Amino acid sequence: MLGAIIGDIVGSRFEYGGRNMPNFKLFTPECAFTDDTICNIAIADAIIKGLDYGENLILWCTKYPYPLGGYGSKFLEWLTSSKHKAYDSWGNGSAMRVSSIGWAFDSESKTEKEAIKSAKPTHSHPEGIKGAVCVATLIFKLRTKKLLKEDIPDYIKEHFEYDLPILSDVKGMNDTCMTTVPQAIQCFMEADCFEKAIRNAVEIGGDTDTTASIAGAIAEAYYPIPQEIKEKALKYLDNDMKAIVAEFFAKFR
Ligand SMILES: [Mg+2]
Is the model's pTM score more than 0.85? Predict the structure, then answer.
């Protein structure tokens, strides 16, 4: 889940820009955590304490009401309404917040069940749920070495019906599960280290913080994160968030 946070922070200053920026600096004063980090922390905290995913999303997002880039309009409506009714979304928010679920459970079926539970408070549409299950399951399979990197495209096609795009062909906006998830997986496929996966996500542009966040979450399950990158990213987090990261690592890593 630290990979997701790092991707979010690195991608934050490029949201809806970022295309073709070779050799950009990973961390600058313009970087910040955004909704992706807040939601990942909320889910990790819920796992640690055995809390309800939806209720903990409301708790953390209410605590941080104005992150850089804000929240999606539908999510904000959900957050601030009294009933918090799921809105049938297929936006990429369900896939972007699921990283810790890929690390916390010891079977694929439990991982899948928890991913569904984490999506449903908002993303009740089958595509929204599928995006979350795909990312969590892929993290689980990579970290437990149950899937070879070279077998990912076929596995993803067979189980989730996503075709992975070639990154140089990617154009346009990517804010749905059906666009962001396969692109983020491909950012990992075309990388040979953690940092490159995140750089790839910024390079394709669009919803860069979320794409980089998902690409970082997947890459973390396969490549080590350089210590320097970890330390720099953690400096952007508030103390309550750092505490959740530390607790999660102590418990599950
Ligand atoms: Mg964001």
Answer: yes
